[in-house]
Amino acid sequence: MYSKPRSVFIDLSLHQILITLIMNKFTRKMMLAIACIIAGCINVQAQYQLPNPGFEGTWKETTWGGFLGKSTENAPQYWHSFGTAAGSLQSFTKASVSQSTDTRTGSGSCAKISATNPIGNVVGNGTLTTGRMNAGSMTPTDETGNYNFTDLENEEYQQKFTGLPDSISFWVKSKMASSTEEARMAAILHDNFRYQDPTKDETILSHKIGSAELNYTTTNEQWVQKTVNFEYTQNATPSFLLLTFTTNKTAGGGSKEDVVYIDDIEFIYNSKLESLKIGGVAVDGFDKDTYNYTSAYVEFIISQFLFISTFPSFSALSLCTTVFFFPSPYPYFSQKNIGIISK
Q1: Backbone phi, then psi, for 162, in 5-degree steps?
Q2: Cβ–Cβ < 8 Å for 287, 293
Q3: pLDDT at position 113
Q4: Distance in angstroms (rounded) separating the CA atoms of residues 298 and 285
Q5: How many CA atoms lie within 13 A of 5 on its CB side?
Q6: How many Cβ atoms are within 10 Å of 128's Cβ, its own excluded?
Q7: Residue 209 and residue 191 in contact, taking contact as beta carbons nearer than 8 Å
Q8: What DSSP designation does 55 have?
Q9: Is residue 164 scored above 70 in pLDDT?
Q10: Model pLDDT for residues 173-219, shown as the tens digit of each residue
Q11: Bridge partners for 281 per DSSP
């Protein structure tokens, strides 16, 4: 199994040491914003998080159907389900995704994914994906006809992604007819290939770079946070993410009454320093799991940062400007004399 390398930006400037030493005191979102503003070295075309992870963006209504009747589905921006599925049997499918205000915080919206009953006793798994569904077989478990895929020919049905996260976190609330049935989450990072899920095709699987997958039982209608680690099989940068949530791990499994709510998806990146030097001199007692060190200038800067950060009205830019550009009380510890050596 390939072990994903961890690294920190190599930068001979003060802001990197500050970010590293106090990163455990702030949320990842604040630190990411500060790092982007100060460093100015992150490629704006790179994608490390989803564009609509909390389902607060635009929702699009789609109506379709054949002689079995019409269906209307309301799907969140950048996400898809049966309403936009490909395949010869799309007109026989039923709506499974809708917008819900039953969120974990009590405000905003989340995605509600419901199992369907297209005909007779057939159960259609409720599905929400960043790719596109294909409905092409009357047999639910037929992976050659029924699957989700990254559509390389249509940007609407592909999620560009270049990050190598350590884990994925999401909030879920579910109700299932049986305590033994399991819903499923699958996050697959892959290269520039028409990847599909599920599949047992070795040619398709060879294009997978890493994945995080979880089957989970009912949460008994309570909001629960799930965190799943990624496992990597290749040392490469992905091009796309195919992320799918379904009401059951087995195609056609479960009950037509099964419901899953999803909210606040986040990709988590862990990085640790391999060494630390101040003025070209290694810090005594350095340990990659230790974030606090005795250094008069660094402690002074951190104390100023913590003081200023107590005022929520400061924007990230003004905060960074205030913190990182006042004169040094210790001339030797200038920006050019403080550096980090990373893996």
Answers
A1: -120, 0
A2: no
A3: 97
A4: 16
A5: 10
A6: 25
A7: yes
A8: S
A9: yes
A10: 999 988 899 999 999 999 999 999 999 999 999 999 999 999 999 99
A11: 278
